[in-house]
Amino acid sequence: MKGRAMFETFTAAFSTMMVVMVCIAAGYAAGKTGIMPQNSDGVLSKCETYLFCPAMVLNSLMVNCTAAALKEKAALIGFCTLIMFLGFAIGTPLVCLLEKKGYQRNILKYAIVFPNFGFLGMAIVPLILGEEALFGYVMYMLPMNIGVYTYGTSLLIREGTEKKPLWKQLVNPMFISTFLGILLGVTGLGGRLPAFVRTGIQYLSNCFSPVAMVLTGIVVSRFGLKKLFTVKKSYIMTFLRLLALPVLFLTLLHFLKAGRDVIMFTLVAYAAPIGLNTIVFPASCGEDTSSGASMAMVSHILCVITIPLLYAAMVGLGWV
Description:
By secondary structure, the chain is mainly α. It has one domain: Na+/H+ antiporter like fold. It has 15 helices and no strands. Helix 1 packs across helix 6 (119-129), helix 4 (74-98) runs antiparallel to helix 5 and helix 7 packs parallel to helix 13. The longest helix has 31 residues, at 2-32. The radius of gyration is 19 Å and the shape is globular. The chain starts with a helix and ends with a helix.
């Protein structure tokens, strides 16, 4: 019976991940055939960053973030912080073995410490765990967002390039929408907003997931597939990112008796593929983007199998 349950769980999760892959493939085809203009990835990225993602966070928080719920989910922040620092402590020496020095090593460090927990993670959560789980995931992501906008950006901004002060790095759409959403949720003002405002925010929120997947495909379509699939380090990094580190983190959380929410959010966030910042930031600095694009492509394809496998294993072991 346990084997059948694991198979059914894998099949359900795999079907969900195939939905993600279909959207990514659509973006890839649109980018490769020239249907989308050259600057479309930049336009869609700005829409995601300044409109759709903030709307998704705002909508979830102002609906679900009551004072009681905030207190109940506070432990998520602590567990995420622990896992993030553990990832840094383990991942950094591993990366130093793969790349001795230079900017490329910074790209690998970022890829190890910060998976695509935002764009892809937030797209997967409603599909696998349901819309009601999104609030908990947003709370879980807070330490990682702080890490990305501080340490993460410092890794990907090349020396000699002007860096923003810490407070400017943290004043961004994600943090503004998080703060505003918590405020509206705790005070109850979110439910008092005019219906057309709440509906508009919901519509913008609904755009986030499909656009994020299509955007991934468009960005990757700018590169030649043959070159992307022949970078050996990409497969090592993908193994570490998609399997080795998630298994370690999930096992640790189990022995720490973390709750189901913590384990599931860690699975989604830390088993997610390598994000697009490993392409975007190097491109803005005039650096080689092929390694970042290769890691993103290989890890996005293989996560269709690895995420369902890990999910099915967690169910089979009775950890979730």
